[in-house]
Design a protein that fits this description.
The chain is of the alpha+beta class. It has a domain of 75 residues: SH3 type barrels, CATH 2.30.30. The protein is built from four helices and five strands.
Length: 149
Amino acid sequence: MAFEAFCIVEIMGHQVIAGKVSEETHFGAPLMRVDVPKSSKREGFTCYYGGGSIYKITPTTEQIVQAFVEKQDPEPIKPYMLALPTMAAHVEELDDIPDEPDGWGDENDDNYDDSDDYADPPDDDVIMTGLEQAAEAEQKNNDQTGDLS
């Protein structure tokens, strides 16, 4: 028996939507279809949700769904989604990036100086592994307590 009813649906991301709910299978997976009715502010629209994103479904009446839609004014697409930049908008910006500043050589340049590319390693007596540090700490503790083990 296929489910079809007017419902208020709570979805992942603290979203609440209301409309006529039914189940459809797309891409080999069952999805919840919500047909949000037309309001005084916008046209109706349809959304699909996967089962894992649904927290709660409350069956109700068409009148309550319509009142919810009028009060909450759900949006089919969030305004920030419309303002997402496109790759084409950045192509001109990429053309404005300057070449390497003067003085930046590359390894194939005759003037390339690699003397700063490699730091001198620290003295061996400064480098201690975690095990060496633990052993030294244990030795200090034994010296203080008089433990000879």
